[in-house]
Amino acid sequence: MYKPKLEKDIRCPLEYGLTVFGGKWKSRVICVLAEKGILRYSAIRKEMVNITDAVLAATLKELIADDIVKRQQFDEIPPRVEYSLTDKGFSVVPILQNICQWSGIYHKEDSGNTSLQCQKCDYNYSHQ
What we know:
Number of strands: 3
Shape: globular
Radius of gyration: 16 Å
Structural class: mainly alpha
């Protein structure tokens, strides 16, 4: 039987960081919320390109569990739910900006087709 060399709970800080904001969609959701502020699910969905509802819902749940995104539900009819970045979420934005800057230097775009989500990371964030 296969036995992993390291327990899943043992992680270095880099691995933790990449788990929290890495992957295809998490960084994009963070950038959208950093640029737009407080958004409802439908507004986040509209800002994202080529993401399914199931993947967006799962991504938001993971970001909420890691205290990157805050979900606020209002007791209204019809129900209203809003999403925004936590302080921990805003602290990730400069890291993502640095990654975008580094990638801009070393990654050659095919025919100048830059992702709209990546352009959102270039926004000058100043969270108080």
